[in-house]
């Protein structure tokens, strides 16, 4: 496996300091190595438009503030830390499951948009994506919380990448159940916690972690089929308001909280670690966990 951490330090600096008319082209050039992340999208994807839709930093406003954010990332040595974390996590995973297929992975780290109220508010200035095998993206604003847990955030996404790699769990967007995504978030957090302790919890799920009413509500949606329902059941009503869909009456991060509870109950009962449970079917985890929690 080759882990490639893109040099977005230089890339973002080039975009942000270029004349206005050149910035979109330079941004597209910086993002081109992760074009394959969108290989399942219909038609050609405009990388610059996708950047904006995915909370990416602005290229036409608050440039000094974004440059200050870039300096924070440099000062925190974030790129090196992510590289080290990914290698450490892969070593732990291969020790637990030596026969798995491990893809080459390209990692994109970009600053987020400090103007975006949803991004900076409900989701704590962080968004990650590791669902497409071979690619991981981390979009963040350098708050103290995000800088402190950048390793945990990276290996959370690596866990997703490895779960859905060839010979792993099969993902069918039309038929996949909400329960698969709920379990996947819980497993990824548990894997990150195996390495980094409580920093492995995704922050948006923490307020609901011990809320029984939220957990019980999420459990009612575990058998709902189709990716289009994930925003409501995993991320909550505020995300639905932002991205569209039908709200189901859940707070932000409810699916992460429920996923952690389900996975922890499964791990306690089975005696496995999160790394050992990488490819366990989600329904097996759910069945064992719900029985244990009765």
Concise summary:
The chain is an alpha/beta fold and 294 residues long. The protein has helices at 8-17, 20-31, 47-53, 63-75, 78-96, 117-120, 144-148, 150-163, 178-196, 212-219, 230-235, 237-243, 254-270, 282-293; strands at 3-5, 105-111, 126-129, 135-140.
Identify the notable features of this structure and list them briefly.
294 residues, alpha/beta, 2 domains, 4 strands, 7% strand
Q: Can you describe what's shown?
A:
This protein is an alpha/beta fold and 294 residues long. It has 2 domains: 1-168, no CATH class; 170-294, no CATH class. Helices cover 52% and strands 7% of the residues. The protein is built from 14 helices and 4 strands. The protein has helices spanning 8-17, 20-31, 47-53, 63-75, 78-96, 117-120, 144-148, 150-163, 178-196, 212-219, 230-235, 237-243, 254-270, 282-293, and strands at residues 3-5, 105-111, 126-129, 135-140. A 4-stranded mixed sheet has the order 1-2-4-3. A hairpin with a 5-residue loop joins strand 3 (126-129) and strand 4 (135-140). Helix 1 (8-17) runs antiparallel to helix 4 and helix 9 (178-196) crosses helix 13. It is globular and about 60 Å long.
Q: Reading side by side through the largest sheet, how are the strands ordered? A: 1-2-4-3
Question: How large a portion of the residues is in β-strands, by DSSP E?
Answer: 5-15%
End-to-end distance: 42 Å
How are helices and strands ordered from N to C? EHHHHHEHEEHHHHHHHH
Number of helices: 14
Global shape? globular
Radius of gyration, taken over Cα atoms and rounded to an integer in Å = 19 Å
**SSE class:** alpha/beta
Low-confidence stretches: none
| Average pLDDT, all residues | 96
The total domain count is 2
Sheet with the most strands?
Answer: 4 strands, mixed
The helical percent reads 40-55%
Q: Quick one: how many beta strands?
A: 4
């Amino acid at each position: 496996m080759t882990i490639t951490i893109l040099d977005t330090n230089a890339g973002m600096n080039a975009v942000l300091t270029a004349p206005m008319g050149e910035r979109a082209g330079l941004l597209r050039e910086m993002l081109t190595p992760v074009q394959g992340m969108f290989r399942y999208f219909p038609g050609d994807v405009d990388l610059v438009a996708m950047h904006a839709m995915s909370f990416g930093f602005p290229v036409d406003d608050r440039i000094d503030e974004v440059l200050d954010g870039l300096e924070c990332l440099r000062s925190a040595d974030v790129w090196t830390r992510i590289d080290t974390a990914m290698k450490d996590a892969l070593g732990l995973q291969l020790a637990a499951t030596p026969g798995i297929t491990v893809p080459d992975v390209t990692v994109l780290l970009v600053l987020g948009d400090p103007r975006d109220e949803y991004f900076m508010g409900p989701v704590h200035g962080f968004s990650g994506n590791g669902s497409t095998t071979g690619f991981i993206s981390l979009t963040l604003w350098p708050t103290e919380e995000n800088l402190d847990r950048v390793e945990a955030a990276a290996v959370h996404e690596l866990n997703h990448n490895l779960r859905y790699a060839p010979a792993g769990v099969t993902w069918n967007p039309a038929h996949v159940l909400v329960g698969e995504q709920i379990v996947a978030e819980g497993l990824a957090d548990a894997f990150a916690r195996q390495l980094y302790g409580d920093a492995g919890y995704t922050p948006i799920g923490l307020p609901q972690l011990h809320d029984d009413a939220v957990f019980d509500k999420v459990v009612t949606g575990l058998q709902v089929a189709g990716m289009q329902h994930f925003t409501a059941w995993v991320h909550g009503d505020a995300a639905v308001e932002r991205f569209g869909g039908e709200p189901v009456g859940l707070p932000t991060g409810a699916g992460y909280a429920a996923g952690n509870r389900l996975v922890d109950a499964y791990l306690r009962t089975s005696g496995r670690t999160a790394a050992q449970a990488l490819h366990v079917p989600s329904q097996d985890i759910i069945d064992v966990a719900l029985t244990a929690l009765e």
